[in-house]
Specification:
The protein is about 35% helix and about 25% strand. It is of the alpha/beta class. Bound molecules: adenosine-5'-diphosphate and magnesium ion (MG).
Length: about 250
């Protein structure tokens, strides 16, 4: 891991990142040469119209997909040319991903869902369950450990999904419209969890959202249009506090 020089303090760095999709002989650039640096501990929101390339970009940063062109550096390390296995390993250790539609395993209960990613790193069963229990308790769902996803509310499912993303204690949390499927009360509970992960635990947080009042909880808002960064907006600190205090009430 490089620590000095150009990469100092940057936990994520994108250089000329492009994603070209090919379908039926037609190619389409969903992301077109994006440059972006994210500092360790920073909170970033990504906004942009539907189809502007937000999810495509997030999937590449989350090492779930690879750029067609350009480079992605995580902790100063170029991950663009890594093998599938190496990517899975780095992803599991470094990045927690939270999706709009939760993607919990329906046949596993809350505790098992959260413990699952730890198996990959050969953590003992007892330790896995202990850690999963701790996180779920902290998120206010300690009573629901044995519930299956279909026995949980939307907000509870998303909190389980966030707990799962934390299983291996990643420094980076990426969330693609995490409150998109939630009513405003559950959405607010989920946002409080994200506030904590950033403010109390100092994790780097990147969240895609359609809602301005959600986006304003971050330090910077990256506006994406047609696969390009249109502008980067700084949110001032007072504004961030006000938005958090007010909650999801418009
Ligand atoms: N697997 C894919 N194959 C072909 N085109 C895709 C694929 N995924 C996304 N796209 C296209 O890329 C563009 C960006 O999609 P996406 O990143 O999902 O946008 P957003 O998340 O901003 O709504 C859209 O035009 C979409 O249709
Ligand atoms: Mg999307």
């Amino acid at each position: 891991m490089k620590t000095g020089g150009e990469m100092a303090g940057k936990i994520i760095s994108l250089k000329g990142v492009t994603k070209t999709y090919k379908a039926d002989g037609v190619s389409f650039d969903a992301v077109r040469g994006v440059d972006l640096d994210i500092i360790e501990g920073e909170r970033i929101s990504i906004m942009g119209p539907s189809g502007s390339g937000k999810s495509t970009l997030m999937h590449m940063v989350g090492l779930l997909d690879v750029p067609t062109k350009g480079h992605i550096y995580i902790n100063g390390e170029d991950v663009s040319k890594k093998s599938e296995n190496e990517l899975a390993y780095i992803r599991g250790k470094t990045i927690g991903f939270v999706f709009q539609s939760f993607y919990l395993v329906p046949s596993l209960n809350a505790l098992e869902n959260v413990a699952l990613p730890m198996m990959f790193y050969r953590i003992e069963k007892e330790e896995r369950e202990k850690r999963a229990k701790e996180i779920l308790k902290e998120f206010g769902i300690g009573e629901k450990l044995a519930n299956y996803p279909n026995q949980l509310s939307g907000g509870q499912r998303q909190r389980v999904a966030i707990a799962r993303s934390l299983a291996n204690d990643p420094k980076i949390i990426l969330a693609d419209e995490p409150t998109g499927n939630l009513d405003s009360k559950s959405g607010e509970e989920v946002l409080k969890v994200f506030d904590d992960l950033h403010q109390r635990e100092g994790r780097t947080l990147v969240t895609v959202t359609h809602e301005r009042y959600v986006a304003e909880r971050a330090e910077r808002i990256v506006h994406i249009r047609d696969g390009l960064i249109e502008k980067i907006e700084k949110v001032d600190e007072n504004k961030r506090e006000t938005v958090r205090g007010r909650g999801l009430v418009k």
